Amino acid sequence: MATIKFKDVTKSFDNGKVTVIPRLSLDIKDKEFVVLVGPSGCGKSTTLRMIAGLEGVSSGELYIDEKKVNDVPPKDRDIAMVFQSYALYPHMTVYKNMAFALKLKKIPKEEIDKKVMWAAKILDIEPYLDRKPKALSGGQRQRVALGRAMVRNPKVFLLDEPLSNLDAKLRTEMRSQITMLHKKLQTTFVYVTHDQTEAMTMADRIVVMDKGVIQQYDTPQKLYNEPANMFVAGFIGSPQMNFIDSTVIRSGKDIKISFSEYELDVPKSKKQALESYIGKDIIIGIRPEHILSDSTPDKEKGSCILNVTADLAEMTGNETNVYFDLNGQKYIARIKTERKISSGDSVKLYIDENTVHFFDKDSTAAI
Ligand SMILES: Nc1ncnc2c1ncn2[C@@H]1O[C@H](COP(=O)(O)OP(=O)(O)OP(=O)(O)O)[C@@H](O)[C@H]1O
Ligand SMILES: [Mg+2]
Q1: Does domain 241-287+355-367 have CATH number 2.40.50.100?
Q2: To test the ligand 1 pocket, which listed residue (11, 20, 159) has its Cβ within 8 A of the most ligand atoms?
Q3: Which residue among 255, 298, 307, 357 is buried most deeply as judged by most CB within 10 Å?
């Protein structure tokens, strides 16, 4: 069993001059696969290194398995960390790389052998056990790095951008391998990446961080469907959500959203919340995949119809990215390629108000 708990943890460097984590509270459940995402420099690695004990916490409390570990050295935390750079010993064979930590612990040879062979089998690296790392591909090296962590039977696996040195195809392959490994090992995984696709596909829950502050901690589905603020909404999803300046207006007894010379109905569930915004500016968020073309069956089309000219149409296979401009606001739509659209075409596009997100302009929080 291994739960991880941050309670009001802060982290600063340079004698308190630089605060990287202003105050972090986070609960990770036993056997959970949690992914930390966020832009470069937001404090992902620092958070992971605090769990490993490679960085101390400046204040607050950190618990592993309900035991306070603020003063527990890394070697006594029962944790294994895998880095982006693999950090394999170049002069040792794959076998020795994997056996090394166990040998230091004076574990009997037969037991070491059993463990190494077990990990090698799961990771499919048995044929390379006698090779040195330089004779391996990037993906094979990364698997050795994972194997080296596995043989130690850690309570927690910490992985810091383990796939970022691999090419796109190998990344996808290793991504599913790590997910399967997690299922097999039934251990807590904390995984750092700045790749939102990795986060969405691998995580049970995702921590979205910005400047050392958690913006939202939830399942991939929740982050996509109900982003807490514009930062999360913009970070999750590709191409990025369209953010459009708009105004909440009264329309008879009803309220509507006015944007780029168009009007949008307000979904029932949002009417009450938007009531207090009448006459005020808000930001609406529309995901590119939620802008539909006339090839979409009627029932899925929205109430709002846009007449646009495609400034640019990028065919990416089964979908086409359509860029257009309405009253100086730039939009991107992702349209199924069965409706063929070329640059310069005039097209009718549809928005279903139930797929639109609403944000407070000042706080950027979801309404
Ligand atoms: N030892 C240190 N001394 C001073 N500042 C540091 C130290 N280590 C990290 N920082 C700063 O802390 C901030 C967070 O760094 P961290 O490495 O955690 O970011 P990250 O989210 O992992 O970024 P990336 O995606 O680029 O790896 C950065 O601004 C970094 O410069
Ligand atoms: Mg980092």
Answers
A1: yes
A2: 20
A3: 357
Could you give the CA distance from residue 193 to residue 47 in angstroms, rounded to a whole number?
Answer: 12
Q: In which residue are the tokens 């004990």 written?
A: 53
Q: Sign of torsion, CA 14 17 21 25?
A: positive
What does the pLDDT look like over 150-203, one tens digit per residue? 898 899 999 999 888 778 888 888 888 899 989 988 999 999 998 889 999 999
Fold type of domain 304-351: OB fold (Dihydrolipoamide Acetyltransferase, E2P) (2.40.50)
Maximal C-alpha separation, the chain: 82
For domain 4-235, give the CATH number. Answer: 3.40.50.300
- The CA distance from 247 to 256, in Å, is 8
Q: Are strands 254-259 and 304-309 parallel, antiparallel or unpaired?
A: unpaired
User: Residue 199 C-alpha to ligand 2 middle, in angstroms?
Assistant: 15
